[in-house]
Amino acid sequence: LSILLILLVSAHTIRSPDCGGILTPSGLRYLADVSKPHAESVLRKDLMAPPAPDPYLTSPSRSQIVSVKVDKFSLTLIPDTGLQLSIEVDLGITSGPSTTKEMRLSILADLHVEMNPEGNLELVTSDCKPTLEEVQSTEEMDRSAPHKSPGQDVDKQINVEKICLEVSKLLLLPNERLMSLAAPFPITPNCQVQYLPLAAPMYSEQGIIISLQTTFQVAGTVIPLPVSPVPFSMPEPAHSSPSHLILAVSKHFYTSLFSALEQSGALNVSLLSSLTTATLAERITQMGSLFQEDLPVVLQAASRSSPRVVLEEDKATVELFLTAQIGTRSSLFQSFLSVNMDVTARLHLSVVDTRMIISVAAIEEVELSLATSDVGPVLTALLEELFLPTIREEVPAQINTVLRQGVFLPHIANFTYTDVNISIHKDYVLMPCNLQLEAR
């Protein structure tokens, strides 16, 4: 296995993953632990229900299941195949006032994840083997009295073959949660992100490998995004991870995110400088004749091309390509100069719950160039002197206001991420983390 995310085999499709993750054996153990109470609830409800009357019996069976306790619930990874579910259930059986027996119901089921026609991942069972055996008596039966083995009655009451239907019921809740993986999540009021499974997961010794493709919607419409020149791939981790889940996000994901924000207009900024037309005229005398009154000077900046994100070892930056109209604002905005602004800003990444918080930590570089080519370099240098402090302060502040709610990472309902350790590498970001089931 040489890559984290597996491309689709079909060569004709342009769909390729830009993020995904590995659910590790440690994560499977955690999911099994938190699923145990739900499994016990489902099995108790069915097994302790009164049996349907048997028309062929002259008298109803007296055997009754009075207790159901799941002693063991485990999920084991089978590389290249899927999962094995193992459940051991202790049953308390009574067939009369003086008799209580304990029996053990064991269930082995083979599970795997498929992609259904709707494009959602779905957990299904391909094989199921239940067995029932007597464990011990808690009270002695009257050996002299004629009796029937409780196990025989219990076999009829439990209907061992029906147990496999109960296993299917156990999968209903996880499948509901799996469907939530592909739900759209808001970024800004008019921009959403959605993670679409590309294929059924792969199974390796390291865990269940899930590949996802991101789409963005602006005002309810899926927008075209830059095509990644290189399919997202990542070296296999050198050793098994103690984390429950390893999330991986490509450089292309971040570039697509900022492109979506740019297309939605979220990166357009209005910068109020500390200058006025009077103070500006002191430095640029030609401006003095343009204005009859002293007005504040404003920069209104909009993207002129798609942003670009660069990921290096331990460093993430975004390059913004803006055109700023410099003008005044009274009743209407009046522009008197057009300036191209190329801004390179350092990004800081963190995770809260299931959201990735991206913030502009600092502007590393700003290049200003006048859109009018016949203006000399002296004026360009003067504009840099006048406006760079405003750009360095206001551009990060306004972009961070847009990004402050964070971007939802791929996740399933009712689970959050904890103990997240973010590492930035060339062309991808790795986020090993643990899962935490939210308290109901």
UniProtKB/TrEMBL annotation:
InterPro entries with a match to the protein in the record: Bactericidal_perm-incr_a/b_dom, BPI_fold-BPI/LBP, Lipid-bd_serum_glycop_C
Keyword Signal listed: yes
GO molecular function, one term: lipid binding
PANTHER family: BPI FOLD-CONTAINING FAMILY B MEMBER 4, BPI FOLD-CONTAINING FAMILY B MEMBER 4-RELATED
Signal sequence segment: 1-16
Pfam families documented for this protein: LBP_BPI_CETP_C
Keyword ATP-binding: no
Alphabetical keyword list: Signal
Name of this chain's protein: TENP protein
Residue ranges occupied by any Lipid-binding serum glycoprotein C-terminal domain in the UniProt entry: 239-433
